[in-house]
Amino acid sequence: MSRLAHIVRHPIKSVGYEEIESASLTKGRALPFDRHWAIAHEAASFGAQPTQWASKRNFVRGAAGHPLMAIRAQTDTKSGTVTLTHPQAQPVTLDPLAQADQLIDWIRPFWPDTRPAPASVVHLPDQPFGDMPDPFVSLLSLSSLRALSHRSGADLSIHRFRGNLWAEDWPPFHEFDLIGKTLRIGGAQLRVVARITRCQATTVNPNTGRSDVDTLGALNRAYDHQDFGVFALITQSGPIARNDAIEVL
């Protein structure tokens, strides 16, 4: 039986990843504190603050600002503060909304000056700023990652793909066969709904913030697509933890 090897969240969209040991999933919601905040740039279509979900083109993101991919995060969910680190910056701990100017100043060196400048930090209650409007959780496979690593000629980090849940002990790309099926992980259940098509952010090394592997080319050459991982919806609330069994119902 497969197991849950990693749980990862990204509290500020494209600005830091963190691994966690457990989480409490809620039906119809995303992973708690995943894409909880986002940094809008000055050309965002909604102005300073959105009133509903907005697409990734409105925000600073790793596909355009490669150094952002090397940011790591640690969230204090009680205080609402996030500690951010980067190999080329001093660590900072802040409240993303209350200290938005400080956050923007901190990430500014990692965003190209040829792009619209970061302008505001946004948040909507119960609406994460994922790449899709639905409250998806992303599910990926370590065996698929090893297969792609072999095709790429590089040992690829899980953090290139900004996934939430990583399964171990599946055949490579078995997750595509699970679309339409329901999985039980710990006390929660999830329904797998669609593949995830990947972008240039996956070419960036999360340790260095530099593009160094043509992951999209490797996917297209080997599999004739650039999909990696699947989206799932939480259909039953419950706790999950690393090393929980993953059961197909």
Structural class: mainly beta
Which percent range fits the helix content?
10-25%
Query: Gyration radius, to the nearest Å?
Result: 17 Å
Mean pLDDT: 96
**CATH H-level superfamily of the largest domain:** PK beta-barrel domain-like
What is the beta-strand fraction? 25-35%
The number of domains is: 2
What does the largest sheet look like?
7 strands, mixed, barrel
Task: Strand order, main sheet: write it out.
Answer: 1-10-9-15-12-11-17
Count of extended strands: 17
What is the N-to-C succession of helices and strands? EEEEEEEHEEHEEEEEHEEE
Task: List strands and helices in order, with pairings.
Blueprint: E1 2-9, E2 18-20, E3 22-25, E4 38-41, E5 72-76, E6 81-86, E7 89-94, H1 100-107, E8 118-122, E9 137-141, H2 142-152, E10 165-168, E11 182-185, E12 188-197, E13 204-205, E14 210-211, H3 215-223, E15 227-236, E16 238-241, E17 245-248
Parallel strand pairs: 9-10
Antiparallel strand pairs: 1-2, 1-10, 1-17, 3-16, 4-8, 5-6, 6-7, 9-15, 11-12, 11-17, 12-15, 13-14
